[in-house]
């Protein structure tokens, strides 16, 4: 697929698939606008070429009617307008006469944003199922298509692959290009020592990534709930910690095949996840829940990281939703931020942690797509890129 600079965009009607799947709090307020900010370079480039911009994005999963009230992109359009210091016309529809009338009357440098593309999923999953009629309709609204939503590049949806298949003029935006520039070197030619940090809850989501990276990395440091599946596979008491039972056999196989996997040696524990009276233990008792890596593990992980030339990190080290279990993640953030090496955060919860803790500018790259970055590191071809 071409790069945006290779297209003739002057005064064209341009559809940009952005990724504005931002986190919202209970009041419907945006808690992390990084994905919106990362899209500005592509948007401003198009505005400099006097384009008429039509923005498409999803926001969360839409499974029931109630989701229509809480998953609207209106709040995102408002925030984008503030960041651009320019009006963004929000259209509370995904298609129909209102959409067509507003777009047909656009002037150069106008911006419109359609409603959440996944509102179309209520009627037969037309968006996530890449419905050909819907894809053709959206494509008909513009003359050029720019895919700048890295977070959905591992999915073949109507709003990315579907539109692209109906457009002659198409390209990747600056955000996607930036992601590939920073992630592909990790896959193709990482500078050693290369250390991977993996956390989060489930191994099953990362099996292929672990397999692929175990061939390339010097060490894989495992924290978060994921670590307890590996520890259980070693026959170590894990108490009532979260275990990914379907991946237990895989964990055993990996531990037998390689000595690159480094596991926690102490734990921040509690008998109730919502209780603040935690303890630090080398070994878990039957009633314990492991909720963060302990101070000995932090120092152990630092010893493997200190001489690294390449670091890839995906997944928090603890139950980060609760502040008292963020220490492991914070300590590693702070330590890695001071290292002189190529260091990449693989999107998702880890990206939110790094950004909210104020370390974004200390990393080489913080990805906007957790699932997409992991699939790329599995060695997969992403449908949203290879169009």
Descriptive report:
α13 (327-337) links the parallel β14 (310-314) and β15 (342-345). The chain is α/β, with parallel strands linked by helices. The protein has two domains: 2-176, 3-Layer(aba) Sandwich (Rossmann fold), CATH 3.40.50.1260; 190-377, Rossmann fold. It is elongated. α6 crosses α7 and α10 (226-233) packs across α11 (248-257). The model has no long low-confidence stretch (mean pLDDT 95). It has a seven-stranded parallel sheet, sandwiched between helices. Strands 10-9-8-14-15-16 form a six-stranded parallel sheet, sandwiched between helices. It contains 15 helices and 16 strands.
Whole-angstrom Rg: 22 Å
Could you say how many structural domains there are in total? 2
Strand order of the largest sheet: 1-7-6-2-3-5-4
Give a short account of the largest sheet.
Answer: 7 strands, parallel
List low-pLDDT spans.
none
- In the CATH hierarchy, the third-tier topology of the largest domain is known as Rossmann fold
Count of helix runs: 15
Distance between the termini: 6 Å
Estimated share of beta-strand residues: 15-25%
Q: What is the CATH architecture annotation of the largest domain? A: 3-Layer(aba) Sandwich
Set out the fold topology.
Layout: E1 2-3, E2 13-17, H1 34-38, H2 40-48, E3 52-56, H3 67-70, H4 74-84, E4 89-91, H5 97-104, E5 111-114, H6 132-139, E6 144-147, H7 158-165, E7 170-172, H8 174-188, E8 194-198, H9 207-216, E9 219-222, H10 226-233, H11 248-257, E10 261-262, E11 267-270, E12 279-281, E13 289-293, H12 295-305, E14 310-314, H13 327-337, E15 342-345, H14 348-356, E16 365-366, H15 370-377
Parallel strand pairs: 1-7, 2-3, 2-6, 3-5, 4-5, 6-7, 8-9, 8-14, 9-10, 14-15, 15-16
Antiparallel strand pairs: 11-12, 11-13
Helix pairs in contact: 6-7, 10-11, 12-13
């Amino acid at each position: 697929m071409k790069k945006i600079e290779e297209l003739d965009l002057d005064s064209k009607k341009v559809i940009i698939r952005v990724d504005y799947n931002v986190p919202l709090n209970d009041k419907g307020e945006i808690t992390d606008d990084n994905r919106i900010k990362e899209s500005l370079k592509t948007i401003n480039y198009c505005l400099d070429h006097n384009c008429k911009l039509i923005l498409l994005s999803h926001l969360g999963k839409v499974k029931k009617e109630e989701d229509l009230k809480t998953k609207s992109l209106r709040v995102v359009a408002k925030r984008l307008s503030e960041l651009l210091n320019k009006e963004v016309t929000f259209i509370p529809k995904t298609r129909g006469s209102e959409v067509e009338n507003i777009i047909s009357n656009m002037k150069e440098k106008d911006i419109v944003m359609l409603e959440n593309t996944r509102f179309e999923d209520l009627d037969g999953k037309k968006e996530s199922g890449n419905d050909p009629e819907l894809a053709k309709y959206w494509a008909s609204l513009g003359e050029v298509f720019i895919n700048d939503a890295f977070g959905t590049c591992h999915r073949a949806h109507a709003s990315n692959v579907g539109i692209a298949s109906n457009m002659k003029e198409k390209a990747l935006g600056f955000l996607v290009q930036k992601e590939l520039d920073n992630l592909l070197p990790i896959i193709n030619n990482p500078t050693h020592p290369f250390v991977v940090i993996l956390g989060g809850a489930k191994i099953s989501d990362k099996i292929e990534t672990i397999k692929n990276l175990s061939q390339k990395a010097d060490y894989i440091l495992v924290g978060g709930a994921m670590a307890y599946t590996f520890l259980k596979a070693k026959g170590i008491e894990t108490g009532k910690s979260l275990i990914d039972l379907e991946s237990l056999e895989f964990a055993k196989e990996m531990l037998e095949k390689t000595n690159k996997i480094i596991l926690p040696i102490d734990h921040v524990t509690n008998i109730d996840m919502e209780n603040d009276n935690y303890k630090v233990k080398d070994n878990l008792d039957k009633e314990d829940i492991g909720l963060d890596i302990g101070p000995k593990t932090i120092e152990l992980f630092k010893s493997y990281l200190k001489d690294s030339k390449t670091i890839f990190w995906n997944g928090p080290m603890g139950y980060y939703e609760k502040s008292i279990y963020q220490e492991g993640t914070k300590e590693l953030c702070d330590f890695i931020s001071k290292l002189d090496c190529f260091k990449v955060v693989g999107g998702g919860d880890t990206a939110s942690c790094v950004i909210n803790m104020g370390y974004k500018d200390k990393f080489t790259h913080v990805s906007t797509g957790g699932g997409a970055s992991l699939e790329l590191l599995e060695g997969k071809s992403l449908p949203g890129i290879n169009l």
